[in-house]
Every structure is written in structure tokens, then in C-alpha cells.
Specification:
Layout (H helix, E strand, L loop, with lengths): L2 E2 L11 H4 L1 H11 L6 E6 L6 H15 L3 E6 L4 H14 L8 H17 L4 E7 L6 H4 L4 E7 L9 H11 L4 E4 L12 E4 L16 H9 L9 E5 L8 H14 L4 E6 L8 H12 L5 E5 L6 H10 L2 E4 L8 H8 L4 E4 L4 H4 L7 E3 L2 H13 L1 H18 L2 H18 L1
Parallel strand pairs: 2-3, 2-4, 4-5, 5-6, 6-7, 8-9, 8-11, 9-10, 11-12, 12-13
Antiparallel strand pairs: 1-3
Helix pairs in contact: 2-16, 3-16, 4-5, 8-11, 9-14, 14-15
């Protein structure tokens, strides 16, 4: 068997006061005919990154509305994750394709995981490229199959997408965050479904200002001075080096400013430590630049505290599938600045609920605008939070999946 992930329990009714009774009632109506259906989510890792964070909420809520839902993680060693990290980067536009040996490694691990997948599912939902070959290898193990893409494939490396396409094109249904991410040649039914965050998870629940400042002070932050924060993986596409450069421009005008770069290290991202070390080197010993990860005991509550305490939240990505850290930041009602790429513009109306930027200089200029005008920051944060409430919370995401399951099983 593949590795099962224990997810705990959640209750849909607990979200009523946040998203409203109408949505909760719609979900219950959609779920009624699906009760007892067996659903399995397959992903590459159980921690670090947006996919696992989504599934820790989505799977228990699917169980709560009556589905027999499980989450299983594929087996992989360093050689596999080295190959899939190359694949991930290439699908987001990096020029380097996998070697023949890398592709063979990817296929071999997919064949092994296909053998380990137990059959008898009504829906098998495969997340991202790492286990994408499962459908072509063992289609008989589930009545319905979905492939969920969480990355920006708007301009993939042509060789890489050409080799991956035979494994993903024929899934009966697929899901992408944005229409532009759908590669040419996909043949099944395509769904455009942005992801969502759990407003009741420790990372997103309301923290008192006193608790947030207490937590931040434990990591050497001076809570009486302004702070810029980016929460993300240590990854070239997230541009933490560019954030440091923007901070340095801001610091010339406002010497009191501090920067926190907070991220988690994921088991399927072998490059993460290299780029983490590169980020530390770029900070060059500046005591006002705080670079932290989950190995510094930074977990969900700590991330929540940093976001809640910050004067400006940043996600200066140069590529971004969707950016759940963006959603999390905006949900805290803090002023937000993000790269004008991928799924970030879906979440931010420039100048209304945050700012979109294309350069280090623009990021610094917008940060200074916010730091000099606290009323502006409050207005941006308030409008952003309401936008997230309407569009990017987990109950809406659950509803979208139930609609797709209904359609998929009707086709079957």
C-alpha cells in the first residue's frame, strides 16, 4: 500500500459563521447523492507546500459530508525528487529538461507506486506531475480519475511538456488554477478551479495582537519597529533575494524597518536547502533580516503571528501557480504586495486590495507608500480580506470538487 496520511477531523458546520448558511446548504445538497463513495487523493508529500496544507483540511471535510475519503503519499527517494524538482522547474519555464535517466527514474517510481495503489476507488485524484503516470498505468483501479495541477504551466519547456503530455492528456477530467495554465493537447474535460485556505486552521485563525507580538519577539523581532515579511518556500521563483534588495531600498529611507523571510522546507524539494543558504548569504549578516524555517521551530502559529504582526506582507514571485501564502496573508487583513504573475492577480486588485509589482524598485516604492500611510494599509487590508472571504475559503473549494465528482461519476 501507499503511505496513508492521518488528517484528524473537521466539521463543515463550524464554517457557517464565516462563509454563510447558503453555501453550507448547497454543499450538503451536493454531497447527499455522493455519500459512501470512495475517494483517494494521491500526492508526493505530506508536509511543506500548499498541496499538503489544502489536503489536511479538504480530506476531513469530504469525510464529514459523507464521502469515504483517504489521502495517500507515494514512495520516492532522493533520485526521484531530484528528477521531479527538475520537472517542476521545467514545466514552469526553466530551460533545463530532464535527462533520459531522470525520465526513466520518474517512470520507474510511478510504476512501483502504481503497483502499490490498492484498487476499488470511485474517484482517484492525482496531484501534480510527480505521480501523474498512475492513470495510464492502472486505469482499472478507480472508476473515475482526476489530475489536479497546482503549478503555472503557461510557458513550459517544450521538451518537458511534450514528454509529460501522454501521461496527463487523457485523464477524464483535470483541474487547473487558471485557464492560461492548461497546456495544448489536454483532451479530457478541463475545470478551472482556484484553490483555497482554511480560515479555522492554526495558520489562519484570529490571533490577538498581544499573542502575535509575543511570538514574534521570541524570534528576535522588535515589535515596536516596522516589519516587512514574505512567507514562502526558499525557491528561486519566490525571489527572496529580490525581497532583500527591496528591503535595502526601503531601509535607506526608513532605517528602522526589519525583514522576515519565513518558509518551510519540503521533503520533495531537494534544492530548498541550497537556496535557503543562498538567501542567508545574500542577507550578508544584516541583523534586521530574519531568515527562518520549520527547523527553527517555526510552525503554523508562528507563521500566523508573523503575518498578523507585519506592516507589509510580500510575495514577490516571478512565477506562481496560485500562491496560497498570498491568500493567507490577505486573510490577515494586512496590506499586501505581490508579483504580477500567475494566480496572484486573481487575488489582488491592484491599488484596491493590495499592489501588484514587476520589479524590486516598484516593490520598495509600494512598501514605502504603505509604511508612510497606515490608513492606506488598513483600507487595502480590509478590502482584501473580504475578497478572500467570498472567493478563496475551503468550503467553496469543497463545493467545486463535489460538483466535479458528480459529473465524473455520471459520465462513468
Amino acid at each position: 500500500m501507499l503511505q496513508p496520511v492521518a488528517v484528524g477531523s473537521k466539521t463543515l458546520a463550524d464554517y457557517t459563521h464565516i462563509v454563510g448558511r447558503d453555501l453550507i446548504d448547497e454543499i450538503r445538497t451536493l454531497a447527499e447523492p455522493l455519500k459512501g463513495r470512495r475517494v483517494v487523493h494521491i500526492s508526493a508529500t505530506a508536509f511543506g507546500g500548499g498541496v499538503s496544507e489544502i489536503l489536511y483540511t479538504l480530506v476531513p471535510l469530504m469525510k464529514d459530508v459523507g464521502l469515504e475519503c483517504e489521502w495517500q503519499v507515494i514512495y520516492g527517494r532522493e533520485e526521484f525528487f531530484n528528477a521531479t524538482k527538475l520537472m517542476h522547474n521545467a514545466l514552469q519555464g526553466a530551460p533545463e529538461d530532464l535527462t533520459d535517466e531522470d525520465w526513466e527514474t520518474w517512470r520507474r517510481y510511478n510504476e512501483m507506486n502504481a503497483r502499490e495503489l490498492v484498487g476499488g476507488w470511485d474517484v482517484c485524484l492525482v496531484h501534480d506531475p510527480q505521480p501523474a503516470a498512475l492513470y495510464t498505468l492502472v486505469p482499472e483501479k478507480s472508476k473515475g480519475w482526476l489530475w489536479r495541477c497546482h503549478i503555472d504551466m503557461s510557458s513550459p519547456n517544450p521538451d518537458t511538456i511534450g514528454k509529460l503530455l501522454p501521461y496527463i492528456a487523457n485523464y477524464p477530467q483535470s483541474l487547473f488554477h487558471v485557464r492560461d495554465y492548461v497546456p495544448a493537447g489536454m483532451e479530457g474535460h478541463i475545470n478551472i478551479v482556484p484553490p483555497a485556505i482554511d480560515p479555522l486552521a492554526p495558520k489562519n485563525m484570529a490571533l490577538s495582537p498581544e499573542d502575535a507580538s509575543y511570538v514574534c519577539s521570541q524570534f528576535g523581532i522588535d515589535v515596536d519597529r516596522p516589519m516587512m515579511t514574505q512567507v514562502s518556500r526558499f525557491d528561486p521563483w519566490k525571489d527572496p533575494l529580490g525581497v532583500i534588495d527591496a528591503y535595502r531600498i526601503v531601509k535607506e529611507e526608513m532605517p528602522d524597518v526589519q525583514l522576515a523571510l519565513v518558509g518551510s522546507m519540503a521533503s520533495d524539494d531537494p534544492e530548498g536547502w541550497d537556496f535557503f543558504n543562498a538567501t542567508i548569504a545574500h542577507a550578508d549578516g544584516d541583523p534586521d533580516v530574519h531568515i527562518l524555517n520549520n527547523f527553527n521551530n517555526v510552525g503554523s502559529i508562528e507563521v500566523n503571528a508573523f503575518q498578523s504582526q507585519s506592516d507589509v506582507l510580500i510575495q514577490k514571485s516571478t512565477r506562481e501557480g496560485f500562491g496560497l501564502t498570498v491568500t493567507e496573508a490577505i486573510w490577515k487583513a494586512r496590506p499586501f504586495i505581490g508579483g504580477n504573475v500567475g494566480g496572484i492577480p486573481l487575488q489582488v486588485e491592484d491599488g484596491v486590495s493590495g499592489y501588484l509589482v514587476d520589479s524590486v524598485e516598484a516593490c520598495a516604492a509600494r512598501t514605502l507608500d504603505i509604511l508612510r500611510d497606515p490608513a492606506l494599509g488598513k483600507a487595502l487590508g480590509r478590502r482584501g480580506k473580504e475578497h478572500v472571504r467570498k472567493h478563496f475559503l475551503t468550503p467553496r473549494y469543497l463545493r467545486d470538487y463535489l460538483r466535479i465528482f458528480t459529473e465524473l461519476l455520471a459520465e462513468d
